[in-house]
Specification:
alpha/beta; Rossmann fold; Dimethylsulfoxide Reductase, domain 2; Barwin-like endoglucanases; 3 domains; six-stranded mixed β-sheet; six-stranded mixed barrel; 28 helices; 34% helix; globular; binds ligand MGD; binds molybdenum atom
Length: 715
């Protein structure tokens, strides 16, 4: 895994160093592999032994334990007593073709993607949707880093991060904001640790004192385990949930005040003058801001803010990293842009050792976007797509993103849902509504490696289409194929499966797309079978349609990797002003009525998104349970709830609808007052569909307003 000539870890998107260590993987990557390489088989007989209701009664962990899917399956009618049965690939494709042909308009079909899909498969996938005539290509990114993409594009003219791995070798300050790398990007800890070893300062900004950051021990360096690791983050700012805009403004204001004391020494005036716009307005707004309000809303003490501001003002090369704690908020885009503001003050963009680093989730989520999986394609991309396939007419109207797709299905404006991977039912907000949305479709079809909860809420016809995993040998017309993926730092490299497929009946993702296309598009202008026969042919088209991917064919021949260009790295900012833009954002007011809490939904150490490996959250000291709500002890006391008491969680969305999550154990925890934490996906029932980030529509799953309710006494 993660070796030249091997396969890319299907875990996270953190890049591999150029000089690979002998073991370039982590404990959680190993779990992801084990999950895919399991010897258990979810055969049609095994699955068909259960009714849908019986399958729904299994936990996510138990569903995963059924093993790898082996054959295409169908369930009809969608009632709780229905069962999956096997069918041939040909019949599966025919059913999809018929269902799509029966739709009054192509925009009634939805093509969802999760970010594990290779560049080659994802490119064919979006081509299929567009040739059918729709841009309805929602993806997991809509629920993930969309706020980063939108936020960065507006102010830097590029939606991606600006750093590469070697920048971390030079940085002298690394901010880790709203991210839990100890669990979710374990290999990033190695990078952070090396930086700390050189004397770089690391600042964690988080409502939780994430133990993986505070005490770090390297799993492959036994001495660390003996000494219990050492502190990694030199500073920890315990921000309130949703308090980042206030905190980042307070930090920037303190930097301005430092400049007042030492004029000409703190701000990078030359950079600001030459490369940015909007500084005067930004500076005026910051100076006019009420300092007390900034402190209160951030929840961080003044002296800590001044200490970190001084650290920032003294650092020569700063990298800011962030993840879901920043993006999954109503003001997620503003969060991202306030990070940029702070970084622009000292020219920390487009300089070695400095820059912006949104740390992506799924291993190829960034690549899927590069190859066109988006509901908002750029016209130039569609033009090139049409040029590559004479006769193709790519639709120009924007399609549906994830939450829009749920709404469209609920209102029966969309009737067919086809997913390339992922677990839409469990990952999307408002589980109950999402279940109704899927069940209301005429057709649902899921390309998947394992059975998951989305497959248990089928439409009138429900299909499960089992595919090869990334670890497996992919034989096509010209032999074993490789695919390409792009990591979080825009490096594209190859991935080649090495294991025997879990079943003879599995098809590769590209082959499944071609099968669907053949059935749905009898007059297609795309030579589907030819492309799938040798993925080099797909890469040749990729190079034509996406100029940045020039060189991707060579990866298959010569190995190595291609770095996608990023203009911001060279201080070229193709924004509306032609410069990097300072932006002004109002400070969100977070006060809640008594009894209400702001809930963040988190990952534990023992899961990969909706795939649950086990019930422990090692670094947070929680064992054997996932239905928990973490709350400050005084908030528990104020609500009259005993530690360990089992409570219901009730959320009220902007639509005024009540959502209830039953039976969560209340655990006293070191969080800021008024804040709470619970696990994704158990807590997704509480996330309102209409609470989403302005500008990016990312569900605000880190900012759910809830109250705890005592449960009626048993009996
Ligand atoms: N092992 C493993 N690895 C994974 C995944 C997995 O599930 N398991 N998932 C992958 C995916 S798709 C993704 S997107 C990434 C996710 O990686 P993370 O973003 O690290 O995952 P989360 O658990 O959502 O954690 C968010 C962090 O934000 C903090 N936070 C919450 N609200 C706020 C806030 O208002 N302000 C600030 N400053 N912090 C806040 C939380 O305390 C938590 O530490 O990981 C990827 N890697
Ligand atoms: N409340 C709340 N909700 C969230 C989040 C949160 O923090 N809080 N995080 C959001 C984020 S960041 C994300 S990225 C989304 C994730 O949303 P998704 O990407 O939809 O969900 P996953 O759980 O990653 O998908 C797992 C499924 O993918 C399938 N699979 C695995 N490998 C392969 C493969 O190689 N090919 C195919 N075709 N299928 C495969 C398996 O069937 C598995 O069950 O969830 C979002 N939802
Ligand atoms: Mo994600």
């Amino acid at each position: 895994m993660n070796q030249t000539g091997g396969f890319d870890c299907p875990g996270c998107a953190w890049p591999e160093p150029a000089a690979r260590a002998r073991f370039e993987f982590c404990e959680n990557g190993a779990k992801a592999i084990a999950e895919e390489a399991t010897t258990r088989r979810a055969t049609p007989e095994r699955i068909g032994a259960f009714t849908l209701d019986e399958l729904r009664a299994l936990s996510d962990f138990e569903l995963g334990q059924l093993g790898r899917l082996t054959h295409p399956m169908v369930v009809r009618g969608g009632s709780g007593s229905a069962r999956y049965e096997p069918l041939s690939w040909q019949d599966a494709f025919r059913l999809i073709g018929e269902a799509l042909a029966a739709l009054p308009a192509p925009d009634q079909a939805i093509f969802y993607t999760s970010g594990r899909t290779s560049n080659e498969a994802a490119f064919l996938w979006q081509l299929l949707a567009r040739e059918l005539g729709t841009n309805n290509l929602p993806d997991c990114s809509n629920m993930c880093h969309e706020s980063s993409g939108v936020g960065l594009s507006e102010v830097l003219g590029t939606g991606k991060g600006t750093v590469s791995l070697d920048d971390f070798d030079r940085a002298d300050l690394i901010l880790v904001i709203g991210q839990n790398p100890g669990t979710n990007h374990p290999r990033m800890l190695t990078t952070l640790r090396e930086a700390a070893g050189r004397g770089a300062a690391i600042v964690s900004i988080n409502p939780l004192r994430e133990a993986g950051l505070v005490r770090f021990s390297h799993p492959q360096k036994p001495l660390d385990l003996l000494t219990r690791g050492r502190p990694l983050a030199s500073e920890f700012l315990q921000v309130r949930i949703g308090g980042d805009v206030a905190l980042l403004q307070a930090l920037a204001r303190a930097v301005l005040e430092e400049e007042d004391r030492r004029p000409g020494e703190v701000l990078d005036r030359d950079f600001i003058d030459r490369f940015t716009s909007g500084f005067a307005e930004y500076e005026a707004a910051l100076r006019a801001a009420d300092w007390q309000t900034l402190l209160e809303e951030s929840g961080v003490a003044e002296e800590e803010i001044r200490r970190v501001a001084a650290l920032y003002a003294g650092a020569q090369r700063v990298i800011a990293c962030w993840a879901m704690g920043i993006t999954q908020h109503v003001n997620g885009v503003a969060n991202v842009q306030e990070i940029v503001n702070l970084m622009l003050l000292r020219g920390n963009v487009g300089r070695p050792g400095a820059g912006l680093c949104p740390v992506r989730g799924h291993s190829n989520v960034q690549g899927d976007r590069t190859v066109g999986v988006t509901s908002r394609p750029k016209p130039a991309f569609l033009d090139r797509l049409e040029a590559a396939f004479p006769g193709l007419r790519a639709p120009r109207a924007p399609g549906l993103d994830t939450v829009e797709a749920i709404e469209a299905m609920l209102e029966r404006r969309a009737r067919a849902f086809i997913a390339m991977g992922g677990n839409f039912y469990s990952a999307a907000p408002d589980t109950e509504a999402t279940g109704r949305a899927l069940s209301g479709c005429a057709l649902t079809a899921h390309v998947a490696t394992k059975l998951n909860r989305s497959h248990l809420y089928p439409g009138a016809i429900g299909l499960v289409l089992p595919c090869l995993g990334r670890t497996e040998i992919d034989e096509q017309e010209t032999g074993a194929q490789m695919v390409t993926v792009e990591d979080s730092m825009s490096m594209v490299h190859g991935s080649r499966g090495v294991l025997e497929p879990a079943s003879d009946a599995l098809l590769s993702e590209p082959a499944i797309v071609a099968g669907i296309a053949r059935a749905a598009l009898p007059d297609s202008v795309v030579p589907w079978e030819h492309l799938v026969g040798d993925y080099d042919r797909i890469r040749a088209v990729l190079e034509k349609v996406i100029p940045e991917l020039a060189g991707v064919s060579a990866i298959a021949r010569d190995g190595g990797s291609v770095r996608l260009p990023n203009p911001a790295r060279d201080r070229v900012f193709p924004t509306s002003t032609g410069k990097a833009r300072f932006t002004v954002h109002p400070v969100p007011r977070l006060a809640l009525a008594p009894g209400l809490l702001r809930l963040m939904t988190l990952r534990s150490h023992d899961q990969y998104n909706t795939t649950v490996y086990g019930l422990d959250d090692r670094y947070r000291g929680l064992r054997g349970k996932r239905r928990v709500v973490l709350v400050h002890p005084e908030d528990l006391a104020a609500a009259g709830i005993e530690p360990g008491e089992v409570v219901d969680l009730v959320s009220l969305g902007p639509d005024g609808r009540k959502r209830r999550g039953e039976a969560f154990e209340a655990i006293p925890y070191e969080l800021p007052r008024g804040c709470a934490g619970a696990y994704f996906p158990e807590a997704n029932v509480l996330v309102p569909l209409d609470a989403r980030a302005a500008g990016s529509q990312t569900p605000a799953s880190k900012s759910v307003v809830i109250r705890m309710e005592r449960r009626p006494a048993a009996g």
